[in-house]
Amino acid sequence: MHIQFNDEPLECTAGLTIAALLAQLEQGKTGAALAVNHTIVPREQWSDHLLREGDSILLFQAIAGG
């Protein structure tokens, strides 16, 4: 299956969850936030959220401020 990860094309196996993808890519950083197709996915849903063909995943460091 083909997806985009941080604006880079990536091929991965079908039926992969966000958590499994991040583990494969060694990207399990604390303080990170993630969006799939421009929608934030809460960390507690990463183990259940299945990725689909063509998904666009953006992983970024969450920064608080005012």
In one word, what is the shape? globular
Helix content: 10-25%
Overall mean pLDDT: 92
Strand content: 25-35%
- Number of contiguous helices: 1
Using only CA atoms, what is the Rg?
11 Å
The H/E string reads EEHEEE
Number of strands: 5
Name the poorly predicted regions. Answer: none
* Strand-pairing-aware structural class: mainly beta
Strand order of the largest sheet: 2-1-5-3-4
Largest sheet: 5 strands, mixed
Instruction: Give the termini distance in whole angstroms.
Output: 40 Å
Describe this structure in words.
InterPro entries: Thi_S, ThiS/MoaD-like. This is Sulfur carrier protein ThiS. It holds the Pfam family ThiS. The longest helix is centred in the N-terminal third of the chain and has 7 residues, at 18-24. It is globular, with a radius of gyration of 11 Å. The relative contact order is 0.31. Strand 3 and strand 4 form a beta hairpin. 11% of the residues lie in helices and 32% in strands. The protein is built from 1 helix and 5 strands; from the N terminus they run ββαβββ. It has a 5-stranded mixed sheet, with no helix packed on it. The mean pLDDT is 92. With 66 residues, the chain is mainly beta.
